[in-house]
Amino acid sequence: MRQSTPSSATSSEAEAEAIASVPTGLFTGGRWRTTARTMSVEDPSTGAVLTEVADASPEEAAAALDAAATAQADWAATPPRQRSEILSRAHRLMVEETDRLALIMTLEMGKPLAEARGEVAYAAEFFRWFAEEAVRIDGGYMTAPAGDSRFLVAREPVGPCILITPWNFPLAMGTRKIGPALAVGCTCVIKPASHTPLSILALAEILVRAGVPDGVVNVVTTKRSNDVMTPLILDPRSRKLSFTGSTEVGKGLLELAAKTVMRTSMELGGNAPFLVFEDADLDAAVEGAMQAKMRNIGQACTAANRILVQRSVAADFADRLTRRMAELPLGRGVEDGVVVGPLINAEAVDKVTELVRDAVGRGAEVRLGGQAVDRAGHYYPATVLTGVPADAEMCSAEIFGPVAALSEFDTEEEAVAIANDTPYGLVSYLYTTDLARGFRVSHALETGMVGINRGVVSNPAAPFGGVKESGVGREGGFSGIDEFLETKYISVGL
């Protein structure tokens, strides 16, 4: 793999200016507030500190919930068209400021600028989608079967929401939660990941300019998540919890939410199979594998974790994929042409290193890469392993790195059995030119989403979510707004 050279187009001055444009306090009740403690935000490509942001105490977080609870009634009573227009303005502002937001994201998270710009567009689209849905929240009316009354069905905002977002898609996971909450009339407290708070802080400032009233959106940054967020989740005024992150943490949050019977949406871990059948268009399958594996440097719950190829085409597919992976430049995300940026931290590199070591120890062959890069920052190169056995740890754990793990199968039934042999069920991918097989296999796969001859399935207009231990609820699409609404039945006597 070749390493990129720095570009003069993105100067250190521009990077400093982008970071300086981001507020660094807590945002509660429409005001930016300083805190006694701060936490460092690092650039994973160098390990250097970018800036310091507020590290909230439990009391400061409670003030954010106070603000959200106080603003709830007025925001719920705001006309849907007004809420829609605010979200539309936020969408336009995000699009106008794509370059600034993308640079902030790349600096704090590491993904290449091209991908960061794509995420800004994706994130903004959630605001546009839910702006359009805000004015289409419906209800129902019917005559009682006995004819003696009428049934009215209303859908109302669930109330103040706690939104917790991950570091790997720091902007899009925020808008995917904030968009429907605001569209239906819910206020919120959002806690971004401590590794990547800057994108959400920049978004909060945009929402203010878009016209979001004081207290409707509140941002709490902290590296003491358990101490700070647990009281908010247990507070009876909090009526909805939306979390994106690991299954382990999600299970703990579900236990907390059960104490107040709180509404929850959980988008948790994945172990996505990527099936390539012998009748597939191999050029298209390789392209799809590159998208499904290398999006966000492999740090995605939707990443192709297990690439399963029918034996008759396995060698050809592996050769083609290896050639493509070998072409990917590695370096800082702000450098021209970079595709493989840094992983989020040193622990992530250590995890990938151990998973590769385990697979090789069990018989896998390294076709490309396979060792961490010796340079400043947290880098692991694009890697291809073939013959990965089913008992390798990476077949049951999310790799979360740029490692393509290839295994073989003989029959369609075997492929489906291997794909489903996991407690996770977020997304799966399959490549075939047989339409009947495509539908047959997609229905047999135990996942909430399936990509047939597609390496990317995420879309703001589609319901995103999984089954089994990959979560509950859906985000995006028509279903995404339902997660923030309660149904009220009113019986009217005649």
Automatic annotation (TrEMBL):
Query: Which UniProt keyword terms apply here?
Result: Oxidoreductase
Domain Aldehyde dehydrogenase residue range list: 35-490
Composition bias, Low complexity: 7-21
Gene3D superfamilies for this protein: Aldehyde Dehydrogenase, Chain A, domain 1, Aldehyde Dehydrogenase, Chain A, domain 2
Give the signal peptide range.
none
| Entry-linked SUPFAM superfamilies | ALDH-like (SSF53720)
Family (UniProt): Belongs to the aldehyde dehydrogenase family.
- In Swiss-Prot or TrEMBL terms, this protein is called NAD-dependent succinate-semialdehyde dehydrogenase
What organism is this sequence from?
A: Citricoccus alkalitolerans
